[in-house]
């Protein structure tokens, strides 16, 4: 009784108390993170300068990297919830529908629409475009499942600000590098769900998270200076998905597992303004003093979850019906490259960023309405129909103690 009163007064509130699947700010946060990646890329792609935030954190992080890491925290939380309520087969089907159709159309548009236009701008003709050793068809084949083993197309984009920095043909869509790490995390959580670990032995997942964090702490002990980034390691390869850098695999998987653990232990995770303030102080202090990747990232993960349940209601409506975040993320990079190629950065950073946002929305909005949302409507394919329960006067409806609503077939 006392605990219930404390909860009502806001003195002891857990994530489970505050999280409502139908009323949260995850849609707004995803949109903000996608735009954060776009804005961060405006510096290197338009001005040939380091991304925003690199100097403020002494090279430990930047706005683009932090935005990608935020995606993995949110994804871990939401995807774990999906895996807990769906069968392994339907979980895999839902994940594939959310990522692959949008990716496939983006690859086709990039290789067969944007790249030919750039080729004509740079060469005045399409001669040699299809037969180039790194041509558009090879780009499609090797990257079809997000491996991104080929970033340039037909030797293009060497005369852009970013191309001049790298000294040759530049990436058409550098943002797609993170998708295979996302797929890898889906595969991990899918295996944990299929083996019932996610449902019945979640302490093993917590142990995995702790183990990953011990490796992160070991990195902190091995870097030359506390303001260094994690040490780079070798790479491992997976069929279809290509090679994975060991350092990115560790840190993105760790953040994904933090989100998953938060979902599973939401009833034990306090979620208050005081804790969020402490997390913000820890995060900012580590950015300025060092050790951000070991100390600041867990604090950042907590802030992501806090904002999802604490932001004003008006922001919680954003992204609920129209989720443009994925389209913005996958189309921004090629759009920004083209804008830079035709001189859109000559007007300065603000003009270049605004042109990039406008051009990206021209592709991201149709991506949602014509590709992503229609694909998501296929989630019920192959689902086994469940007959509605026969109502009786003697049996009241069963209620779920967690959600407080009537139990429905999942």
* Portion in helices: 55-70%
> Order of SSEs, N→C?
HHHHHHHHHHEEHHHHHH
Which stretches are poorly predicted, pLDDT < 50 over at least 5 residues? 5-11, 389-410
Distance between the termini: 32 Å
Q: Biggest β-sheet: count, sense, barrel?
A: 2 strands, antiparallel
Overall number of domains = 1
Q: Give the total of beta strands.
A: 2
What is the number of helices? 16
Strand order of the largest sheet: 1-2
Strand residue percentage: under 5%
Basic shape: globular
Report the average pLDDT across residues.
90
Structural class: mainly alpha
The Cα radius of gyration reads 23 Å
SSE inventory with pairings:
Blueprint: H1 2-8, H2 15-18, H3 26-47, H4 63-85, H5 88-123, H6 136-143, H7 161-166, H8 179-194, H9 197-200, H10 202-222, E1 235-238, E2 242-245, H11 246-264, H12 273-289, H13 292-310, H14 313-316, H15 325-341, H16 349-376
Antiparallel strand pairs: 1-2
Helix pairs in contact: 3-4, 3-15, 3-16, 4-8, 4-11, 4-13, 5-6, 5-8, 5-15, 5-16, 8-11, 10-11, 11-13, 12-13, 15-16
If you had to describe this structure to a student in words, what would you say it looks like?
- By secondary structure, this protein is an all-alpha fold.
- It has one domain (26-380).
- It contains 16 helices and two strands.
- It has helices at residues 2-8, 15-18, 26-47, 63-85, 88-123, 136-143, 161-166, 179-194, 197-200, 202-222, 246-264, 273-289, 292-310, 313-316, 325-341, 349-376; strands spanning 235-238, 242-245.
- The protein has a two-stranded antiparallel ribbon.
- A hairpin with a 3-residue loop joins strand 1 (235-238) and strand 2.
- Helix 11 (246-264) packs parallel to helix 13 (292-310), helix 12 (273-289) runs antiparallel to helix 13 (292-310) and helix 15 (325-341) runs antiparallel to helix 16 (349-376).
- The longest helix has 36 residues, at 88-123.
- The model is unreliable at 5-11 and 389-410 (pLDDT under 50).
